[in-house]
Structures are given as C-alpha cells and as structure tokens.
Amino acid sequence: MTKRKIVVALGGNAILSTDASASAQIKAVKETVKQLVAFVKQGDQLIISHGNGPQVGNLLIQQAASDSEKTPAMPLDTVGAMSQGEIGYWMQNAFNEVLAEEGLALDVATIVTQTIVDAKDEAFQNPTKPIGPFYSEAEAKKQQSINPEAHFVEDAGRGWRRVVPSPRPIGIQEAPVIQKLVEGNVITISAGGGGVPVAKEGNKLRGVEAVIDKDFASEKLAELVGADMLIILTAVDNVYVNFNKPDQKKLTNVSVAELEDYIKDDQFAKGSMLPKIQAAIEYVNNRPDSKAIITSLDNVKNLLAHDAGTIITK
Ligand SMILES: Nc1ncnc2c1ncn2[C@@H]1O[C@H](COP(=O)(O)OP(=O)(O)O)[C@@H](O)[C@H]1O
Ligand SMILES: NC(=O)OP(=O)(O)O
User: Fold this and answer.
1) Which residue has the CA at smallest separation from atom 6 of ligand 1?
2) Which of 1, 141, 154, 230 is 20 to 30 A away from residue 131, measured at CA?
3) Would the ipTM clear 0.85, i.e. be above it?
4) Where does the Aspartate/glutamate/uridylate kinase domain lie (predicted)?
C-alpha cells in the first residue's frame, strides 16, 4: 500500500483547554500525540500543523509586561515564531516519547515556517483574528485604554478577546524543505500558528504584524506538498447546519456545492467554523480526487477504522 500523505491541522483544544501553564499544555500535547501516532501505526505519513491563538496572545502580554530598554518587547511576527518554537518543542518531545513507547523508530522535526502574505491585504485594515485570553467587557475596555492600538471584540459568546489582522496565505517559504523531510519519512510539524507572516520586499521577506489562520495555511501546505488528505481536528465530531439549535443536523458526507449553499445561508460562524469550511473547499477544488475531513481528536480512532466526521469531497 502506498503511504498516504496526510496534513493534520490541530485546533486549540489539542494544546490548551483552560490551564495555560506549560505543564498543562505539555500534558494536552502528549494526549494529542498519542491519538496521532495511530496514523503512523497504520502507515500514514503525518504532516502536522497547529494553531497558536492562545499562546501567541499570552506571549504578547508577557512581552508588554517586561518592555524596557534592557528587555524590549518583541513584535508580533517574532512572537509568532516563538509560539512555533514552544509548541513544536512540546510536540517533538511528546512524539519522541510516544514513538519509543510504541517501538517505532521515526524522526520528527519542527520547521520554523514563514508564510508569505500580501502586505496590501485588506485584512491589515480590519483585525479579525482572536488571540490570547478571554476577558469580560469591562476588562477588555480597560486593556484597550492601556493600549489604544489593540482592538478587542466579543468572540462567539465566549467573552472578549484581542483581535489582530489575519491576511490570507499566498505561499510557504519552507515548503520545499518540508517536502524533502516528508519524502525522507520524517514526521513534520510546520506552519504552526499559520506560519510567521512575512511579506516580499524585492528579494527579502519582512515580518508583518499579523496572525494567519492555521486552517488556511494548512490548506496551502497540503496543496504545496501534494497531500492526499487534509484533516482538520477541532472540538466537534462533525460540522452541523443549524448548529446548537433544536433542529441541528449533522453533516457526514458533503459536497463543495452543498457547502457553498450553506455558506450563503450563514451556517458557519466566522472566525471559527467558516475558515475550516473555506479551507476544505479550497483543498478539494485544488485536488478534486482528494477529500478533506473535519472532526474531533477523539474521533480519530473512528476515522481510522472507517471514514468518520464531516467528509468534504468535490
Ligand atoms: N456550523 C457549525 N458546526 C459545528 N461547529 C461549529 C459551527 N459553527 C461554529 N462552530 C464552532 O466552531 C468551533 C471550532 O472553531 P474553533 O474553536 O475556532 O476552532 P479550533 O479548533 O481551530 O480552535 C466548534 O467547536 C464549534 O463550537
Ligand atoms: N493561528 C491560528 O489559527 O490559531 P488558532 O487556531 O489557535 O486560532
């Protein structure tokens, strides 16, 4: 059987639920990796990407707290790279441990990934990507008065969060090296947090202040490495229409045309389920013989036994 190349995009709950301490995140990452190793045991090639919303926001707050001449705050692009480092480190370490427990001799590597964006992307004028912790409205207003440049919005009924620009990915600078590692059977962790956003300036890449949506970056990664499947793991087993309403309906097998109708009908929340749906549509449009799956980490075992979750095909 030929090895399937699978891009697995990990959502927030795969790394952080409520406790943002290093020990709690390390524990969550280990549980996640235990589930992911099932793909490896089945003979699949894993190309992992992950979010960084909570982590990048928390790091930014830590930067601001120690901003002095001796310990200056780092800008958002650099903080994005820091978040790739911390999560990649936790994940590599967990893979080393779990692979050894399973008696599997495989290498794993994190690639600090730069994602190319258009410096003129309209997203820079309209911050939409929620990062960091949730606040009450009063706390958010207080934060805003301390840092007038920061924008806060109410995030899907869950509280107030800082939002930053989130331009669409155009390319992934490190795609060729990621491809080489994939061909060499290395488990890769790349495009973390959507990748560090960089804009082209002649021959140079310049970091820009933004956080890219990891679902869009994962789609771009899947396209560039020629992945056979894109799996987006989040907190729900399936995508629903009329989500959270008494008449909600689970989507199991769904086509691009059906999803486009549901989008017109505003069925998917912006900033949460909508980018996953858009990324899945883009992926299957680019690779019409492939499929994208949106499901939960807990559903991976069912997904491996037989297709499970919401399966999107052209
Ligand atoms: N139509 C829908 N079907 C299923 N979940 C939805 C829908 N609309 C919004 N959601 C919410 O979107 C969440 C996934 O988005 P989010 O939490 O931002 O993702 P991530 O796992 O990448 O951090 C789900 O857990 C669910 O609460
Ligand atoms: N960068 C990004 O999309 O992060 P989250 O998935 O954590 O929001």
Assistant:
1) 273
2) 230
3) yes
4) 5-287
